[in-house]
Amino acid sequence: MRQAEFALVSGAQAQEQLMDVLTNNLANVNTPGFKRDRVTFRTYLPHREWLHKTPSDQPGFRMTPWGEFPTPWGMAGKDVPHAGVDGIHVGYAQGSFRSTGNPLDVAIKGEGFFRILTPRGEVLSRNGRFTLDRGGRLVTHEGYGVLGEDGKNIRLPESVPGGVRVKADGTVLKGNRVMGRLAVVVPENGTRHLAKVGDGLFMADGKTAPVADPDVLAGGFESSNVNGTFEMVRMIEAMRSFETHLKALQTLNELTRRTVNDISVIA
């Protein structure tokens, strides 16, 4: 019974974690530049020789953007089959371009991220919905500074006449005067080492390199790459699977109760 109970509990827990991730995806279906998360699972089957070794992530807790998730590997012993979330991965597929007509709204076509300066340090973002603060700095809607290729915050002071334009290479002009060039970069060690830090921002664990030939689209922004219909279907599947695990666990508990009662009657 112990093996069956743990297998059911670990499976239900994995579906609960999946629902948390899907809920977060759905909540950000209209967030500019948001990148959906996907969940992968791992099954521990002791009768399979190649799975006899306990994975390197020992039983404990794994920090995620949704809180602390238990890592179940080996908790119940090497003789007990169980399952759980193996990892939460970001899908960097490009979202569709949404036109706004706002010259400060920009999107990156293809690879690359904008460099954003926050109180926590420099981060990366695909959200190109920018605005100006009172000092004429180009900032995100959260008030974080947008950096140029020179590493400085781009400024568009009112004293410079003319309208704002952003060229395809990221050059920002006000009137006929160049005010800077948007930094479009990629992590040198790849996107798989990026970590989400909220507000559509990513923290790189290494250096970044400029994109050789960036393609910046002005007058609109990149929408979320979340497919609401797909995520909702996955949510329904996860809920049904979770309920199935719980019903099986209730049935198992009822069988245990009956077994104990029958033994006591016979005795």
UniProtKB/TrEMBL annotation:
<keyword id="KW-0282">Flagellum</keyword>
<dbReference type="InterPro" id="IPR010930">
    <property type="entry name" value="Flg_bb/hook_C_dom"/>
</dbReference>
<comment type="subunit">
    <text>The basal body constitutes a major portion of the flagellar organelle and consists of five rings (E,L,P,S, and M) mounted on a central rod. The rod consists of about 26 subunits of FlgG in the distal portion, and FlgB, FlgC and FlgF are thought to build up the proximal portion of the rod with about 6 subunits each.</text>
</comment>
<comment type="similarity">
    <text>Belongs to the flagella basal body rod proteins family.</text>
</comment>
<dbReference type="GO" id="GO:0071978">
    <property type="term" value="P:bacterial-type flagellum-dependent swarming motility"/>
</dbReference>
<dbReference type="InterPro" id="IPR001444">
    <property type="entry name" value="Flag_bb_rod_N"/>
</dbReference>
<dbReference type="Pfam" id="PF06429">
    <property type="entry name" value="Flg_bbr_C"/>
</dbReference>
<dbReference type="InterPro" id="IPR037925">
    <property type="entry name" value="FlgE/F/G-like"/>
</dbReference>
<feature type="domain" description="Flagellar basal body rod protein N-terminal">
    <location>
        <begin position="8"/>
        <end position="35"/>
    </location>
</feature>
<dbReference type="InterPro" id="IPR019776">
    <property type="entry name" value="Flagellar_basal_body_rod_CS"/>
</dbReference>
<dbReference type="Pfam" id="PF22692">
    <property type="entry name" value="LlgE_F_G_D1"/>
</dbReference>
<dbReference type="Pfam" id="PF00460">
    <property type="entry name" value="Flg_bb_rod"/>
</dbReference>
<dbReference type="InterPro" id="IPR020013">
    <property type="entry name" value="Flagellar_FlgE/F/G"/>
</dbReference>
<feature type="domain" description="Flagellar basal-body/hook protein C-terminal">
    <location>
        <begin position="221"/>
        <end position="260"/>
    </location>
</feature>
<keyword id="KW-0975">Bacterial flagellum</keyword>
<keyword id="KW-0966">Cell projection</keyword>
<dbReference type="GO" id="GO:0030694">
    <property type="term" value="C:bacterial-type flagellum basal body, rod"/>
</dbReference>
<protein>
    <recommendedName>
        <fullName>Flagellar basal-body rod protein FlgF</fullName>
    </recommendedName>
</protein>
<feature type="domain" description="Flagellar hook protein FlgE/F/G-like D1">
    <location>
        <begin position="107"/>
        <end position="172"/>
    </location>
</feature>
<keyword id="KW-0969">Cilium</keyword>
<dbReference type="InterPro" id="IPR053967">
    <property type="entry name" value="LlgE_F_G-like_D1"/>
</dbReference>
